[in-house]
Amino acid sequence: MLILDGMVMTTEKDEFVYHEMVAHVPLFTHPNPENVLVVGGGDGGVIREVLKHPSVKKATLVEIDGKVIEYSKQYLPSIAGALDNERVEVKVGDGFLHIAESENEYDVIMVDSTEPVGPAVNLFTKGFYAGISKALKEDGIFVAQTDNPWFTPELITTVFKDVKEIFPITRLYTANIPTYPSGLWTFTIGSKKHDPLEVSEERFHEIETKYYTKELHNAAFALPKFVGDLIK
């Protein structure tokens, strides 16, 4: 188990749900993801899933807290082991600044942040999403975890509205993660060109997963009414 500032970030029991849903939904939506950026995610779980896609030539991780990387490698090797892969570049630094300095560089950007407190507050702003759009290539896709609809409904509404004003295709999807508050977690995906609900059947290649399936890819976008009402 990894705990930061008193909050549980991940557990070995159900980490695969979160990490698979952050990674595979955008990566299967994009027709040829080669250059991927993960902001946050120092435990390495998202990177592990990203590397399951053979098209990915480079995956960059930008984590503000080097201790997260260090301790994850030491105590959570089943999650963090992929950080030493030759396709991975690990940078300890501010993801907000990294995005601001990037332009037309990435195919897919994944924001695996903590809750919007402390340094992570900047990762939930419209300015950050605008920077992500600039850092993405012309058909780029980004996804961010956006907490749960039971305790933070306003966050979901605000983020979705901000992302929708920047990305022509914006959608919300969910996953069931017992470790996290309420168990129901949301993710907001913004795309310049490719709709995650219009992925051709032949694009789905075989990868080893425990939660994500091609059927679940579409099903995850079917929202409970009270969740859908948050983004109307």
TrEMBL record:
**Chemical reaction(s) catalysed:** S-adenosyl 3-(methylsulfanyl)propylamine + putrescine = S-methyl-5'-thioadenosine + spermidine + H(+)
Q: What Pfam family is a match for this entry?
A: Spermine_synth
Keywords on this record? Cytoplasm, Polyamine biosynthesis, Spermidine biosynthesis, Transferase
What are the BP-aspect GO terms?
spermidine biosynthetic process
| GO CC annotations, alphabetized | cytosol
Give binding positions for spermidine: 19, 43, 112-115
Annotated active site residues, numbered on this chain, are: 112
Boundaries of each PABS domain copy?
A: 1-192
Q: Pathway, per UniProt?
A: Amine and polyamine biosynthesis; spermidine biosynthesis; spermidine from putrescine: step 1/1
Q: Which residues bind S-methyl-5'-thioadenosine?
A: 63, 94-95, 119
What's the Enzyme Commission number for this chain?
Answer: 2.5.1.16
- Gene Ontology molecular function, alphabetical: spermidine synthase activity
* Record function comment: Catalyzes the irreversible transfer of a propylamine group from the amino donor S-adenosylmethioninamine (decarboxy-AdoMet) to putrescine (1,4-diaminobutane) to yield spermidine.
Family designation: Belongs to the spermidine/spermine synthase family.
Q: Which HAMAP family match?
A: Spermidine_synth (MF_00198)
How does this chain assemble? Homodimer or homotetramer.
The molecule here is called: Polyamine aminopropyltransferase
